[in-house]
Design brief:
By secondary structure, the protein is mainly α. It has eight helices and three strands; from the N terminus they run H-H-H-H-H-E-E-H-E-H-H.
Length: about 190
């Protein structure tokens, strides 16, 4: 999904430019710059909305096209930006969770959507008894990425169940030796083969 990653990078760059714009010392230049950006956003938003209206007039084929646009990561992100996405945030998040379930099961986890309320997404993950800490981190990263892709307009994301993953039973060599591994290896004289 290079498109969504590129979009996130573009949005971060735009956010940086907006911060620079906010720091313009001259209030008249700052106001004119803000007005220019807002006017461009309004124009683009109106044009996108009109384009969607025209496509929807084609009936079912148009609605299929709009649905496809809503599923494309890049187009979807722009539609969300302008409040024009065909699905609301709860629907987008629910679909993303449904798509992730098979992948989560392969990781030994079950994911449940608890709620979507005013942009706050709450998920619960139940990890199997053999799920280790690194798997929990992978699961968390996967869920976060999928939620931000599906709902870049989210206000917050809470993932329950991954806070403190119990030990997998693995005992490191340093624990068996009774000393930190670095100290133990430092004490070994490797010599030069003599």
């Amino acid at each position: 999904m290079a498109d969504s990653r590129d979009f996130r990078e573009d949005m971060q760059r735009i956010g940086g430019l907006v911060q620079e714009m906010e720091s313009i010392a001259d209030p008249a230049v700052r106001a004119a710059t803000k007005d220019l950006v807002q006017s461009l956003m309004d124009l683009h938003g109106a044009a996108l909305e009109k384009a969607l209206d025209i496509v929807s007039e084609a009936g079912e084929p148009g609605m299929i096209a709009i649905d496809r646009m809503g599923r494309d990561p890049l187009v979807s992100s722009v539609l969300i930006l302008y409040g024009l996405h065909p699905d609301d945030i709860a629907t987008r998040v629910s679909k993303a969770v449904d798509r992730l379930r098979p992948q989560m099961r392969k990781q030994g986890c079950e994911v449940e959507l608890l709620s979507v309320n005013e942009g706050e997404i709450r998920l619960r993950v139940e990890a199997g008894s053999h799920t280790c800490g690194s798997t929990a981190k992978t699961v968390q990263a996967t869920l976060e990425g999928a939620m931000y892709d599906a709902a870049p307009d989210l206000a917050s994301l809470v993932i329950e169940g991954l806070e403190e993953k119990p030990s997998s039973g693995f005992v490191g060599l340093d624990k068996l030796m009774g000393a930190p591994l670095v100290e133990a290896t430092a004490a070994v004289d490797l010599g030069d083969g003599d």
